[in-house]
Each structure stands twice: as structure tokens, then as C-alpha cells.
Amino acid sequence: MRICLFEDNRYTALYPLTYLHPVFELRCGLFTPLERLQRLVGDSILLQTRELLLDVTWERHAGIEVNPEPGTDMLFLNGRAILTTDEMSQVTSLPRDTVIVRGKDVIALHARHTNAYSIREGVFHFDHASLDRFSVREMACAMVSRPWDLVRLNLEILQADAALLQADIHPAADVSLAAVLESRDNIVIEAGARVEAGVVLDASRGNVVVGKDARIMANAVIIGPACIGQGSLVKAGARIYEGTTIGPMCKVGGEIEGSIVQGYSNKQHDGFLGHSFLGEWVNLGADTNTSDLKNNYGPVRMATEGVEEDTGLQFLGLIAADHVKTGINTMFNTGTCVGVGANVFGGGYPPKFIPAFSWGGSDGFQEYDLERFLRTAAVVMKRRRKELTGAETGLLTSVFHATSRNRKAAVNQRMEAT
Fold this sequence. Notes:
CATH superfamily of the largest domain: Spore Coat Polysaccharide Biosynthesis Protein SpsA, Chain A
Helix content: 10-25%
Structural class: alpha/beta
CATH architecture of the largest domain: Alpha-Beta Complex
Oligomer: single chain
Shape: globular
Largest sheet: 9 strands, parallel
Strand order of the largest sheet: 14-17-20-23-26-29-34-37-39
Radius of gyration: 21 Å
Low-confidence stretches: none
Mean pLDDT: 94
């Protein structure tokens, strides 16, 4: 039996993070759902994603079959679900003609017949009218339904994911004798990692994981549960607090709390990043700051596609999709959402919703020229030894055109307000 990790029709509720990523690529805890599944079940995995993302998914996950032909002995697993080891054991032992649900969401399906579901434009659709033909089980697993769920769940998932690793300091890691390792038995330092003099790794309240070839520069403080991903750099004197995940190949500094950086992004300088999510290829200029708590301590509202809603969270800062850039001293209000490829700069607070491929700040925005954006993206990726491929260029171009209505609406709204 093979497991097919799928996207359902709720992927739009995770915009702007899912414009360029299938839902199973979004990081929470130590891993993405795909990485977590690979650790739990090995290589017997298939992927089902939107047709728009098909080519880039093939490129990113070479060796994994994408959008396979439906089979008669296939276990479907929702890419928005974050499963513990015990929950995954329940799923992988699921008998045929059994479905696991969480409310109205299908978590897993092991169907004998393909007429219980359909794949339309790469998206999995379950025929709820056929439920009476299945044995139905409930599972109260963690589920990502809105972008801020990733931030809300991160501390909890970090702690659960740590159980998948054996706490150890690899013999090939370079750890200074002048570094402080509090609760050493809860610390993972992988091969090639370097921990310099004066660094404090405090795992007394949760595991600290330092990935392969990562470097923690002198006098940085990391309080667990926290993760520094493979090849990432933590600058001297950085303060990284509990509930923070830094993905692979990032450069971070200043003060970070309760946040996720997906990977290949920079927040190198002083400034506060709190209870936020940064996508890939993001660069925050020096002294960029986020507010993550309202003055009245009330629940934060956020607009991911221009329509505000109550998140129910007291702490929520910035949601920034891939390729976002900020100038020095940029300030973001509580619950700000920035779309793919936006370039934000200037004084004052910009709007709380900044559409994809916008260029400007509190004084107003214009549309970012697509060709200029693509040239910059190619340069940025080359610095990490990555190529902006034809498939990625095509996807970015499609998203640019698909989000033009949001940009126009934001400009018109601002004109009406003035």
C-alpha cells in the first residue's frame, strides 16, 4: 500500500502561502507535512497537487511520483493534517473502506473503489454522499486551515516532533567549550553544525535542535523548544525564544519569538519578529519590526486576501509569502499579511493587507514590474546556489496575473479613503 498526500479544496484558505506551495510543503514544528511523513513511513509516498503546481512539485521532489493514476489500494492522507506518531500508526493500519474525519474534513481515506472520490484539476474531492458505504472514524488531530494556524500550533508541534529525533550531539559537530548547554539531554546538534563561544542553548523547557551544517555565532541565545534548520546561520548576539522554527539555509539575527521561517530567507539584523510566518526567499531589512500584540490585548484580526476576520489569537504578527522584501526600519502592525513578491519600504505603518507584487509603503503602492521582479528573484536565488527555473518563472507569472484584481482593489480602496 502506498500513501498519497493530497491537497483538498481548502488550499485557497491558506493563501497567500499556498500560491507557490502545496499545503504539504508548509513548515510547522521541525518539519513540513511531507518531511514528517517521510520520517514516519519512508519512501512509499505519492503526491497529489494542483495542476498549476505540478511542474514545480516535480522539480522540488525528484524521485516522488506526483499526481499518480488512481489505484485500488491507495491510502489518501490530507496534506493539511499534522499527525503524531500514534495518529500516523492509526492511519497506516486503516482497513479498506474506512475514512477518518475531523468535523467535515477528510483526514485519511482507504477506499476499495475510486468512485468514492474524484480528482479535479489536481485537487482531491471526497464524495460525502458515499459516507454510508464506509466505516467512519473521528480523529482530533492538529489541522491547518488558515495561515495563522501554523503560528498557533508551532510550539506544540515542535515538542511533538522532538520525539522523532534522538537527543544527541554528533561527534562531527563543533561545539565550543565556552558554550552553555542547559539540559543537554534535550539538545540535538547534528553533524557539521558549529556552536561558538558564549552561545546559550537552553533546553530546560523544550528541545533545541541545531541542524546539519548550521552555525550559531558567538553570544547568541536560543531558548527551546526551537529549531535551527540545516545550513542556517544565527548571527552574533541573536535572541531566539521558544516556539521558533528556522528552516533550512536561513540567516537570522535580532529578536525572534514564536515564529516560523520556511527556508532560504533572511532576517539578519536587529528588529523584532514575533508570532509570524515568513515564506521562502524573504529578506527583512535592518530594524524591520513586527507588532504581535494589540494595545488593548484583544484578539487580532487579519486579512489574507483583503477581507478581515477574527483570528481568535492574542499574539499574531506578520504573515509574509515568498519573495517578500522590506526596506530598513519597516514597521508592521499587528496581524499584517503581505502577498507574494511584495516590496515594502518607507516610514509609517503600511496597510495590514498588502497584495502580491505590490511596490511601496504607507504613502501608497504601485504594481511591481514583473520583469524587474523576476530578475531580482533570479539573483537572490543564485546567492543560495539555486536557479529560478522555467517552471518557477511560469508559476510566478501566473500568480502575478491571478492577483492583479487584489492590487487594483487595494489601490481603489486607498483612493476612496483619501
